[in-house]
Amino acid sequence: MTLQFATRNDAIIAGYVPFLVATPQNRPYFDTAPFGLSIAEREIIDPMRLESKTFLHLLQRLDQLTFGPEGMPMPLWIFYDCSELPGGIFGFGRYADALDATLLAEYGVPAEYHGLVPFSMYIAIPMSRPGDWMGHNLASLSPTFPELGLRGLGAITKALALKVYRVEQFYGVTQWESKALYIHTKFGPLGLTTAFTPAHSTPHSLTYSHAVDEACIRAACGDPTVTLDYPPAELYLDSLDEKGMIELQEQIEAGERFAIVGPPERYENGVRHPIARR
Ligand SMILES: CC(C)(COP(=O)(O)OP(=O)(O)OC[C@H]1O[C@@H](n2cnc3c(N)ncnc32)[C@H](O)[C@@H]1OP(=O)(O)O)[C@@H](O)C(=O)NCCC(=O)NCCS
Predict the structure, then answer these.
(1) Ligand 1 in reach of 267 Cβ (< 6 A)
(2) With a 6 A CB cut-off, is 179 part of the ligand 1 pocket?
């Protein structure tokens, strides 16, 4: 199955199975056929049922395999209380029987399990204003198993998840050093809400926000016919420049508005972010 438009990532979309974790209460509010990519009934997982246990535990394993090395693995209660109950989890997977034994062992899939094994997930949580959502977790096994050639998996997972959840205004939190910013900036310029965030366990976190429309989702999916506008950079912030982050934060608090206007750029001192006034 593919989307209603062609993308650079059609091989992944056709070769992997979309899934959605949703409670019966939330499910009617979700789009279970984003751009015609129908999520089969058996791939809509109810976290309130016993039969969902192994799949939900594999989502935690996915998180460990991807986030684990960065030291932010999630306990199951965060999955349940802060993800499955209030929001949703959308991703792509493959059935265990279609996977080779080495991968199953490295993943930690139980030998008796023949169900879907998640390869990516995007978790988001609704905020107070209808249509506002915050991104809570993005995970893709592409970097863990580079031999599978899954480049693009992270981006299509986040993009289609926003369509599934019917997000209108998106908020996200990430770290200036995070490679995920290569993905987030595919959705267009990112309005900066915080540039230095002592409320977070990693103060080098930024909070960003953007409106979600069909064009930005298609662009992030890799639709070559969609081009988004990015204003030119007026300044650059090094991903480790704490002083620069605090100065930017002070200007935001004083009422100035900034946006990240492109993906992270490598330069002679490391990685820097293009920023412009809005
Ligand atoms: C971040 C993560 C989701 C990315 O998944 P992925 O499937 O590799 O992502 P994609 O292939 O869709 O996109 C990665 C993009 O980053 C680019 N990229 C990554 N590292 C790069 C680098 N060092 N230099 C330049 N580009 C880089 C890739 O080229 C690609 O962009 P492209 O398709 O335009 O070339 C995955 O690494 C992960 O699960 N990490 C751990 C969890 C995490 O950090 N989550 C994000 C929380 S905010």
Answers:
(1) no
(2) yes
Q: Distance between CA 87 and CA 138 in Å, rounded?
A: 14
Q: What is the DSSP string of 142-193?
A: TTTSGGG--TTHHHHHHHHHHHHTT-SEEEEEEETT-TTHHHHGGGS-EEEE
List the structure tokens of 65: 């395999």
Whether the per-residue pLDDT at 70 is higher than 70: the answer is no
Helix axes 214-221, 153-164, angle to 10 degrees: 160
Residue 121 Cβ contacting ligand 1 at under 6 Å = no
Q: Strands, E, within the chain: which ranges?
A: 17-21, 44-45, 88-95, 116-118, 120-126, 132-140, 169-175, 190-194, 205-211, 235-238, 258-260, 265-267, 270-277
pLDDT digit string, tens, across residues 7-25:
999 999 999 999 999 999 9
- Compute the distance from residue 28 Cα to the ligand 1 centre, in Å: 31
For ligand 1, pick from 179, 227, 260, 266 the residue to mutate: most ligand atoms within 8 Å of CB.
Answer: 179
Residue 57 in any domain: the answer is yes
Q: Is residue 176 part of a domain?
A: no
Residue 131 lies in a domain: yes
Q: Over the stretch 114-146, which tens digit does the pLDDT of each residue have?
A: 999 999 999 999 999 999 999 999 999 999 999
- Range of the structural domain that residue 25 is part of: 10-167
| pTM of structure | 0.96
Q: What is the domain count for the chain?
A: 1
Answer yes or no: is the C-beta of 74 below 6 A from any ligand 1 atom: no
